[in-house]
Every structure is written in C-alpha cells, then in structure tokens.
Specification:
By secondary structure, this protein is mostly helical. The protein is 68% helix and 0% strand. 43% of the residues are buried. This is Biotin transporter.
C-alpha cells in the first residue's frame, strides 16, 4: 500500500484532535471542557491503539514545539505547568488503552456494537484520563487529592456524553470500512 495512503488516517486523527481542541471551550473550573478527549478516544477506537497513540503523540509534539494546537490556542512546554497537564499527558495512554479495549472486544470482521465501544472508552477514561488528570490538578494547583477529585467530578457528565458520541461514530466508521480493523485501509 502506498505510504501516503497509510499515513492519511494518522494525519486525519491528528487534525481531528487539533480541531476539537480549538473549538470553543466551556469554562468549567481550572481546566476548560473541550472535545479533545472525544477525539483522542475516537482516534484509538478507529485507528487502533498504536496508531491512535501515535496520532496523539504527534499532536502533543506539535503543541509542545510551539504550534498553537492546545485549547485556547495555547502552545509550548509551559502547558505542562498548567492544570490541564495531567489530562494532556494521559491522552496517549487513553488512545492506547481505550483503543486496545475497543479492538479487543471487536475482533476483525465482527459487527461493531456501540454499547461495548462506549464501555471501552469509559473504562479508558476512568482508568487513565481521570487519575492522571487528578494528579495534574494536585501538582499544578497545590491542592489535596480530595480537592482535585471534587474538581474532576465536574467533568464526568461530559465525559460520558463524549464516550457515547465516540461509540456511535466509531461503530459507524467500522461498519462503513470493515477493512480498517484488518489494516486494509
């Protein structure tokens, strides 16, 4: 397969994450609510765990190198000192774990089931995104873990909605391009 054709889904994943980060955010506490985590878990679910994680690492690399791709147009390594650092650093692991679970419960050639994809995405959020986000809040804001948890809980309803949307879209993508799971796209 042509190298450019193989890279296209990866670049589309990076582009989707950038787009979702740059959409207007909801100011809900020290970390604005964006669609970044939706795009990250969608990348893992659609591209697969490894390519999804690579797409996220490319996105983070762009932002840390100075491209204004983070929420609100932020860029550079200074974001690693902010309240959102833990969430950003969790993104590659979220794509890896969430995408890995999706691809595990959806063997090649099987019919994608949105409820299973939703559960996989939510598991990734619960096991990776929120714990690392809480740790980042503790470090950046110099607060207790319990205080950080109370801040993080504000983000859970939106996270449930983002994972539901991911499940519907990822399921539709896999139904439309069944060869994607077998590495044929």
């Amino acid at each position: 397969m042509n190298r450019v054709v193989r890279l296209l889904p990866l670049l589309l994943g990076v582009g989707l994450i950038v787009l979702c980060a740059r959409l207007p955010a909801l100011p809900l506490g020290p970390v604005p609510v964006t669609l970044q985590s939706f795009a990250v878990i969608l990348a893992g679910a659609v591209l697969g765990p490894w390519r999804g994680a690579v797409a996220v690492l490319l996105y983070l690399g762009l932002g840390l190198a100075g491209a204004p791709v983070f929420s609100g147009g932020a860029a550079g390594v200074a974001v690693l000192n902010g309240a959102s650092a833990g969430y950003l650093l969790a993104f590659p692991l979220l794509a890896l774990l969430g995408g890995g679970l999706v691809w595990r419960v959806m063997p090649a050639g099987s019919t994608p089931r949105p409820l299973w994809l939703f559960a996989c995405g939510l598991a990734g959020s619960v096991l990776v995104l929120h714990p690392l986000g809480i740790a980042g809040l503790v470090r950046a804001l110099e607060i207790t873990p319990l205080q950080a948890l109370s801040i993080d809980l504000r983000y859970w309803p939106g996270d449930v909605l983002k994972n539901a949307l991911m499940a519907v879209l990822a399921s539709a993508v896999h139904r439309r391009w069944p060869g994607l799971r077998r590495g044929q796209c």
